[in-house]
Amino acid sequence: MYKIDSTQNRIAPLEAKRFGELGFTERKHLQEWLENCPQALAQGDGEELLIIQKEFDGFDDTRERLDLLAVDKDGNLVIIENKLDDTGRDVIWQALKYAGYCANLSKSQVVDIYQRYLNQKAQETGQPPANAADSLIEFLEVDGLEAAQINRIKTQRLIFVAARYRKEVTNTALWLSQFGIACQCFKVTPYQAGNELFLNVEQIIPTPESSEFMIGMVAKEDEEKSADTEQKQRHTLRLAFWEQTLEAFSHSNCALYNNISPAKDHWLSAGSGIRGMPYQLIFGKNEVRVGLSLQNSQAEANTFVFERLEAQKDEIEAAFGHLLVWLPLYNKKACRIQYAKAVDGYDKANWPEMIQWLVTHMTQLEVALRDPLKTINQKLKHKTFKAVEVAND
């Protein structure tokens, strides 16, 4: 790794260090860094991990504890083992034991484990704890906890983090991967340049280039062995609902969804004129919803638009004809403005009424927000945010 000196047009090597000589420890430093920045373990596709516990020791008849426990976007449990300067010989065996222990955890137990973690974090900060079930629903992007598939059979993943890997560790990790056990090895190296310290995190197994291929092969094998019947039913149900909904929109005065295709997700998005801030239709088991989701990659842009819309709340709600729910969702990725109706969504006999409700209220919402969004977008174009994305139309 090199440091760029743009004034001299030169590069200078950074000095690679060992964690031990810098005074860093596994538990107080490396573990804390990864707990608070799990995106350091993201693959090339920007995978997200949600840390749900650290120093977890909730195993029956044993005092062993794993370093970090996380959930990925598919609801799989991820066992993360940190070994600082050297993996040692037994890290694979340790992680396999932990994966075996975790394989028996039910969805409710995972929620309880995460809630205990959130309670502990709240005690440390003096803030009220977040709700574990709600946080998991948001992270997994499902329409309710009953729809979330968490810790299914044979889905546990292993992540190893260390500065140096012994051959017996890397060979075993590659061998396990051939049997569908997801193993990742990340090499972490601290660097120093003067008084500045840097950390390089590099995935070495599987290599980023081969990850997609390996994941695809495992997925294909799983698909051939067994199909997830419930998930397929949900996807089929949603696809049918959206087909009927889009047909109704095509005969309405709302043109938002004219070029949108039906999907298997519980939401359907359409552009609002501001990039990363779509209108959304929501089809859930217990409710249907219309709304505007402010989900630009930069939270500052979302807040900018939300606050200016909220300043016109009375006028917008008068034009819409109902009181809206305004969700700033501070410290999260997105803000939302929405209006919902309770339904028995999976009873097809209710679909005609639900679809008409969505068409009517999305039409009203677009009319109510159209002019405010145009004005705000003009102002947004002249604001400077870090890597903010705004529409040019």
Automatic annotation (TrEMBL):
Any GO molecular function: nucleic acid binding
Source superkingdom: Bacteria
Pfam name, any one: DUF4268
Domain named DUF4268: residues: 237-371
InterPro entries: DUF4268 (IPR025364), tRNA_endonuc-like_dom_sf (IPR011856)
Name of the protein in its database record: DUF4268 domain-containing protein
